Amino acid sequence: MNPLLSKLQPYPFERLRQLTAGVVPNPAYRAISLGIGEPKHPTPAFIKDALTAALDGLAAYPATAGEPALREACAAWVQRRYGLSLDPATQILPVNGSREALFALAQTVIDPTQHAEAGGPAVVCPNPFYQIYEGAALLAGARVVFANSDPARNFAADWSSIPDAVWATTQLLYVCSPGNPTGAVMPLEEWQRLFELSDRHGFVIASDECYSEIYFREGPDAAPLGGLEAAAKLGCSDFRNLVALTSLSKRSNVPGLRSGFVMGDAKLMKAFLLYRTYHGSAVGPAVQRASVAAWNDEAHVVENRRLYREKFEKVTPILASVMDVALPDASFYLWAKVPDTVCGGSDEAFARELLAQYNVAVLPGSYLAREAQGVNPGAGRVRMALVAGVEECVEAAERIKAFILSQSK
User: Fold this and answer.
1) Helix (H, G, I), strand (E, B) or coil at 405
2) Which residues form the Aminotransferase class I/classII large domain (predicted)?
């Protein structure tokens, strides 16, 4: 067996299952889950229609590079969303969802034979983080270095906490903006700092942007800044050592479709295509046709944002009356602090007792982070995914409030 597999930690949801294995939820309440970030809004009918209409294409092998029509639809969306003109043939690559691509990218760019004096090449990522970053780095033969989130800066990652000696051995930096689980969006000045570090040390930046279309403000500057957009604003038109990854899962409520694309540095994209050709990662023809329909339509995305905006407007004040929580920059998560008077401030105990007494599932924040610089920045917090319907999310919030008040007496 691959010895690197022993370095992998259980996935957060497996840890949650272990935590609650002996819990019998209060039968007086119907189950409500805020634990998993799986969109529950209905999949638009036109996407399902496009998927079924393309089933006659199953008799042919799909090309790893994707059909020209899909790459062109992706490029057209990038132009509308970010004002960028990308070459569909060399700067865009369809993938089976951003998760698959985030993992495969590390296998493409990491050279495990380098930096032996430092214990191997480094992969830097935010903390808390999406656990695929860690697993991808470890299985590529790299070591993971974490940049803790800073509550004083709306939970933005503190990249300045990474020593220069680590940056010198870094081969890949994972960025997530809007962030999971904090919802923090990186401003242009922060991107500029990371681009300068990448130019100095030659590492690749992978910008995970799967939550980019779920935001709450309105107006011309409401949409979160993207990595390639930031590079263009700063005069880097070739996107050297930079790729961004996006997905239809959250944008279009199709997590089961497994469809997204990667865009950026043409040199990196060429190497990534080579890797994925051997990995057997071509997107199925029916999925490609449905994806073309999804990327070409924006009306359903606007409606999707409206539903999330309504939920956050109703749920956030309820929870803010009893715990430290605020509207995020973007995404569909609330990153809430467990009150010290409830379960001793323990995120694990909070999640377990809330499920037992009020049948609401949330995810302990410590499961989404690692101890770094002496602390686990997720400890004492819980992640709540507002993915269910409006009424269900409001009901869950009222139950959480009742639970906190009952525990605080």
Assistant:
1) helix
2) 32-398
CB 169 within 8 A of CB 175: no
Q: What is the 3-state secondary structure (H, E, C) of 93-137?
A: EEECHHHHHHHHHHHHHCCCCCCHHHCCCEEEEEECCCCHHHHHH
Q: Which of residues 297, 325, 344 is at a domain's end? A: 297
Q: Judge whether 258 and 284 are in contact, CB under 8 Å.
A: no
| 99 and 17 assigned to the same domain | no
d(CA 405, CA 392): 20
Whether the model clears a pTM of 0.85, i.e. scores above it, the answer is: yes
Q: Which residues sit opposite 125 in a β-bridge?
A: 146
pLDDT at residue number 332: 96
d(CA 246, CA 140): 22
Whole-number Å distance between alpha carbons of 3 and 8: 10
CATH of residue 322's domain is 3.90.1150.10
Q: If we measure between CA atoms, which residue out of 175, 246, 181 comes closest to residue 209? A: 246
Last residue of a domain, one of 250, 277, 297: 297
Looking at residue 408, its pLDDT comes to: 75
Judging by DSSP bridges, how do beta strands 260-264 and 333-337 pair with one another? Answer: unpaired
The predicted-structure confidence for 297-328, as pLDDT tens digits, reads as follows 999 999 999 999 999 999 999 999 999 999 99
Spatial distance between the Cα atoms of 54 and 62, rounded to a whole number of angstroms: 13
* Residues 290, 314 within the same domain: no
- The answer to whether the beta carbons of residues 317 and 323 sit under 8 Å apart is no
Chain-centroid distance of CA 117 in Å reads 32
- Gap between the Cα atoms of 244 and 225, Å rounded: 12
Range of the domain at 210: 45-297
Residue 294 has what pLDDT? 98
**Which stretches of the chain drop beneath a pLDDT of 70?**
409
C-alpha triplet 391, 395, 399: angle, nearest 5° = 170
List, for residues 32-81, the tens digit of each pLDDT value. Answer: 999 999 999 999 999 999 999 999 888 889 999 999 999 999 999 999 99
Pair (283, 371) in one structural domain: no
Number of domain units in the chain: 2
